[in-house]
Amino acid sequence: MGDGNLLAGIDPSASAELFEDLLRLPGVRIERIVSTGQASPPDFWYDQGWAEWVLVIAGSAAVQFEDEAELRALGPGDYLFIAPNRRHRVAWTDMGQPTVWLAVHIGEEKP
Amino acid sequence: MGDGNLLAGIDPSASAELFEDLLRLPGVRIERIVSTGQASPPDFWYDQGWAEWVLVIAGSAAVQFEDEAELRALGPGDYLFIAPNRRHRVAWTDMGQPTVWLAVHIGEEKP
Description:
2 copies of one chain form a homodimer.
Chain A: E1 4-5, E2 18-25, E3 28-35, E4 51-58, E5 61-65, E6 72-74, E7 78-82, E8 88-93, E9 99-106
Antiparallel strand pairs in A: 2-3, 3-9, 4-7, 4-9, 5-6, 5-8
């Protein structure tokens, strides 16, 4: 764990999202997520007790915050901070190509 | 701080490397580095007491570890873990285009 390429091993025809830890240290987890058109269920909200910073590497997606009217559309290079317990969902991901996310989870484990 | 685009605001003709914090939380700092052909001085080694995870977003570069014979050449999507106190330097960065790095510094601040 630790060295590799974010764009390697991607199956554009995968039916499920792929989640893979790239690094895990006390207090920090770096994860690759590959989406192939998936979205969160309509009434589902992520509500997590730690901070998350996400970056779109390839493809496109939109994140919806419960407390905002507008979606946050994200393309390559766009990053977004998700504060602890800020309810959010993935409104859509690219149907035409894989969306590769980098997610940095901060303070996930409780001491 | 927190939301933006990693590829924005890049000056390909910059004479110096650009370092910019994108997120700073207890125990974690996420930084963008833009290199335009710079390298570490020939006998210079970084020797830092915390872990670092670097990802090349655009351009290319090579990292040299003091304890390895071969350089680690990095292109878009390549990531590398640098353990605390593992001495390293930047052997070269792309002369033809900006190299955009994402660096995640973990455990930098001492409690």
